[in-house]
């Protein structure tokens, strides 16, 4: 049985897309296929004109857990993708760039701290730096902040927007939260389960940069109720 | 706002002139209030007291159980002999050699087999069942075989010591290689890591805690293996001294030799524990310092 069928979407450069749907609708499978971690049974993924046939340096990925290696310092964790792809020498020369990234997300001074010394929010910020280390053009985010408390999560979402705007990177976010999808995205794809398919793609016409108080705007409420209406009845059971 | 305590709960239970205490403390069990060293010392004193009582009431023959005093005196005698480089030192050094070589051999074979079992599908599916099958055999029964193959010298003891201690190392290594969680594996795949890179940078470090657990078990059983080898295959080691003392019904000597021998095992175990503390610094759950560090 196919997990996904008829998924056809285009993310333009610099755009932020979200995919929302009930558990088991194939969101994560879709993301893995896009990341080149899993081959699709049919169809192709194209990025910047070339088909995705495996993991690529121009694709950055982030997971629900920060997944920092406890035996490496924060800086060493951030340099890991460079060390793996280009070797130790390259990772040493990239130290300055990594330190600049850490400053960008407010982790300055924690270069030599071990992950056990970081809070949940700080660990996820380090994971953002690690994702950005190879300067990817496409960011794939699998519920990156869902393990954080709501206050930290709102803050991290705004940070994410800032980083994406600053680097003109495209992003594709998997989320369970309608509000999070609407506040961050240019386009929200609503998915339905068994088989996983995109029911509708909704363009969100709210001004950039988005701010947290936009949730009080009537348009915001309209988007949220539209999406809620499209989701399966059993979506949030 | 009405004062609930007065209006709803009725009269406040005070007896005239005596205020009801409002401060209360959690009751701590005795075992948590006393310092650890004190409890250990009391337990040791209790043990020695019962031992002394049993011997001074002549409940058992002194040939079977010597008094604590006699045993301690003999521990001192054996200690002088060992430190003075007398005739007992040679056997001890032979046993130490057997232990060290046995452990290194078990380490080399155990890690190799562990990596084969933990990293390859063939190893996991075809080799592991045989390792488990051999592990369930009574390994001491192989002692005569090792003597037949390798003679009465040190090598048959090294072989038995290694044979007995290799299994926890195999299991610890193989389990350790499976310890890295699914997220970390996915991360390594997403950054394009090769199988070798994943092994070296992820699976081996992530598996060190399990590996060292296996190593600790091995560091203790390797001494048993060497001594058993000496009991069953003769030779010049410390086990020989124990056997001779026992056959002469010199029980204080047997006890004191065992106590000195236990230091060998203790040093082995301590060395492995220290290496674990050094190399697995991110996994120090047993020290208060590490816990405080985690809450940072």
Structure description:
The complex is a heterodimer of chains A (237) and B (296). Chain A is an alpha/beta fold and 237 residues long. Chain B has two domains: 32 residues; 207 residues, MetI-like fold (Orthogonal Bundle), CATH 1.10.3720.10. In chain B, 74% of the residues lie in helices and 0% in strands. In chain B, helix 5 runs antiparallel to helix 6. Chain B is flat. At the A-B interface, helix 2 of A face helix 9 and helix 10 of B.
List keywords for this structure.
heterodimer, A: 237 residues, alpha/beta, Rossmann fold, 6-stranded mixed sheet, two-stranded antiparallel sheet, 8 strands, globular, B: 296 residues, mainly alpha, MetI-like fold, 2 domains, 0% strand, disordered C terminus
Brief digest:
The complex is a heterodimer of chains A (237) and B (296). Chain A has 237 residues and is α/β, with parallel strands linked by helices.
Radius of gyration of chain A: 18 Å
* Helix/strand order of chain B: HHHHHHHHHHHHH
Structural domain count of chain A: 2
Largest sheet of chain A: 6 strands, mixed
Oligomer: heterodimer
Number of strands of chain B: 0
Strand order of the largest sheet of chain A: 4-5-6-1-7-8
**Shape designation of chain B:** flat
Q: Which outline of chain A best applies?
A: globular
Per-chain topology:
The complex is a heterodimer of chains A (237) and B (296).
Chain A: E1 16-20, H1 27-35, E2 46-47, E3 50-51, E4 59-62, H2 74-86, H3 88-93, H4 95-104, H5 120-132, E5 138-142, H6 150-167, E6 170-175, H7 178-184, E7 187-192, E8 197-203, H8 218-230
Parallel strand pairs in A: 1-6, 1-7, 4-5, 5-6
Antiparallel strand pairs in A: 2-3, 7-8
Helix pairs in contact in A: 2-5, 7-8
Chain B: H1 4-7, H2 30-33, H3 36-56, H4 68-83, H5 89-119, H6 121-136, H7 143-150, H8 154-177, H9 182-190, H10 195-233, H11 238-247, H12 251-279, H13 288-294
Helix pairs in contact in B: 4-12, 5-6, 5-8, 5-10, 5-11, 7-8, 8-10, 10-11, 10-12, 11-12
């Amino acid at each position: 049985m196919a997990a996904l069928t008829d998924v056809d979407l285009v993310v333009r450069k610099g755009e932020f897309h979200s995919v929302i749907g009930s558990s088991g609708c194939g969101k994560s499978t879709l993301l893995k296929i896009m990341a080149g971690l899993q081959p699709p049974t049919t169809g192709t993924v194209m990025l910047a004109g070339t088909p995705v046939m495996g993991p690529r340096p121009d694709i950055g990925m982030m997971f629900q857990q920060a997944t920092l290696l406890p035996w490496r310092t924060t800086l060493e964790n951030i340099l890991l993708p460079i060390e793996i792809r280009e070797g130790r020498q390259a990772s040493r020369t990239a130290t300055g760039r990594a330190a600049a990234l850490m400053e960008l997300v407010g982790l300055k001074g924690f270069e030599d701290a071990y992950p056990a010394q970081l809070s949940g929010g700080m660990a996820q910020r380090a994971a953002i730096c690690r994702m950005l280390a190879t300067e990817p053009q496409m960011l794939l985010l699998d519920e990156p902040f869902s393990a954080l408390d709501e206050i930290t999560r709102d803050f991290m979402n705004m940070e994410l927007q800032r980083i994406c705007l600053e680097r003109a990177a495209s992003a594709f976010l998997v989320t369970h939260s309608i509000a999070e999808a609407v506040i961050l995205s240019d386009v929200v794809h609503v998915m339905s389960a068994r088989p996983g398919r995109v029911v509708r793609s909704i363009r969100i016409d709210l001004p950039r940069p988005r701010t947290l108080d936009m949730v009080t705007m009537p348009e915001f409420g309209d988007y949220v109720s539209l999406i809620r209406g499209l989701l399966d009845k059993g979506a949030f059971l | 706002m009405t004062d609930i305590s007065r209006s709803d709960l009725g009269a406040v239970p005070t007896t005239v002139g005596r205020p009801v205490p409002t401060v209360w403390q959690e009751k701590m069990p005795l075992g948590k209030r006393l310092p650890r060293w004190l409890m250990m010392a009391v337990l040791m004193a209790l043990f020695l007291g019962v031992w002394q009582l049993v011997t001074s009431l002549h409940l058992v023959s002194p040939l079977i159980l010597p008094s604590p005093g006699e045993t301690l005196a003999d521990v001192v005698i054996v200690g002088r002999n060992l430190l003075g480089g007398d005739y007992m030192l040679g056997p001890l050094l032979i046993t130490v050699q057997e232990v060290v070589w046995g452990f290194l051999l078990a380490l080399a074979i155990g890690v190799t087999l562990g990596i084969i079992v933990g990293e390859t599908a063939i190893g996991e599916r075809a080799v592991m069942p045989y390792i488990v099958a051999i592990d369930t055999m009574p390994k001491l029964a192989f002692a005569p075989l090792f003597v037949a193959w390798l003679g009465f010298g040190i090598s048959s003891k090294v072989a038995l010591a290694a044979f007995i201690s290799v299994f926890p190392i195999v299991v610890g290594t193989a389990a350790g290689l499976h310890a890295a969680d699914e997220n970390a594996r996915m991360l390594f795949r997403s950054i394009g890591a090769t199988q070798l890179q994943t092994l070296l940078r992820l699976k081996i470090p992530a598996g060190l805690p399990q590996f060292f657990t296996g190593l600790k078990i091995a560091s203790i059983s390797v001494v048993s293996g060497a001594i058993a080898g000496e009991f069953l295959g003769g030779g010049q080691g410390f086990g020989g001294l124990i056997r001779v003392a026992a056959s002469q019904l010199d029980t204080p000597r047997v006890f004191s030799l065992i106590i000195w021998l236990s230091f060998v095992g203790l040093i082995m175990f301590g060395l492995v524990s220290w290496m674990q503390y050094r190399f697995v610094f991110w996994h120090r759950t047993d020290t208060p310092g590490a816990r405080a560090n985690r809450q940072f």
